[in-house]
Design a protein that fits this description.
The structure holds two protein chains of two kinds. By secondary structure, chain A is mainly α. Chain A is built from three helices and two strands; from the N terminus they run ββααα. Chain A starts with 14 loop residues before the first strand and ends with a helix. By secondary structure, chain B is mainly α. The chains are: A mainly alpha, B mainly alpha.
């Protein structure tokens, strides 16, 4: 890639069957992005587990906690797997000097959290009505 | 080879950003990211230890392993693209997620904490 800061140094650049070694800073940045998504994944899992185990049951809706907690845990699992494949795709693109693939994780995360949030709001309203 | 900190190779414009002048900072930031990930695993392990010690202890051990993995040379350090550490993190996180899913359906929730 010609637009990389510093550019590949012939002295340290290695080529093998999987492209050319990119600038180390890009590899590090890609790794940090993957780790950030992994932490997001763990946070979703912890949040889901906490809701399912620690939240008091919704009055009149005993299964309500699982309706919120289970999707969060599954979302955490999905984010973890998708972030790995995105890391791999980005690394492959870097090694071959291609444009980085567009990440779909922000879109997936935003939509999923919005849906789960709306579900939580509906459950809270339903339980409030049931408690009367 | 990267230039020494604060210096640029001959024939190149001085970098505006110190990171562009010294990739060592990128390495340090990446090691810190690994440390934060290890802390996230440790926090989950400590939380699980509270009500499921059998599950919490292994997760705490995993956090130490993750911290150690962050100190190993990865793809950038080893000079090849075959870095298995992200795969290891993904498998671990997925496994922890599945265990958490099972745990969320076990027990009586908040009642079991009393």
């Amino acid at each position: 890639m010609t637009d990389q800061p510093g550019g590949p140094d012939p002295a340290t650049t290695s080529t093998d069957g999987d492209g050319t070694e990119p600038d180390a800073r890009y590899t590090f940045a890609n790794e940090r992005t993957f780790l950030a998504w992994s932490r997001t994944s763990l946070a979703l899992v912890v949040g889901g587990l906490a809701i399912a185990q620690l939240l008091p049951p919704f009055p009149g809706i005993p299964w309500g906690r699982h309706v919120i907690g289970t999707p969060l845990i599954l979302l955490g699992c999905a984010v973890s797997v998708i972030s790995y494949f995105e890391w791999k795709a980005s690394q492959h693109a870097l090694r071959h000097g291609r444009p980085l693939p567009r990440s779909r994780l922000p879109q997936i995360l935003a939509i999923a959290i919005a849906v789960i949030g709306l579900t939580a709001a509906v459950l809270a309203l339903l339980s409030a009505v049931a408690a009367r | 080879m990267s230039p020494p900190a604060g210096k640029t190779p001959a024939g190149e414009q001085p970098a505006d950003d110190i990171e562009y002048a010294d990739p060592g900072l990128a390495r340090a930031r990446t090691e810190l990211a690994w440390t934060r990930t290890a802390i996230a695993f440790a926090a989950l392990g400590a939380a699980l230890l509270k009500f499921r010690p059998v599950v919490g202890l292994p997760v705490l051990v995993i956090s130490a392993v993750v911290w150690r993995l962050g100190r190993l040379p990865g793809a950038a350090g080893a000079g090849h693209g075959r870095d298995r550490r992200p795969l290891l993190i993904t498998v671990t996180t997925t496994g922890v997620s599945l265990v958490a899913l099972v745990l969320s359906f076990l027990g009586q929730g908040i009642i079991s904490l009393r």
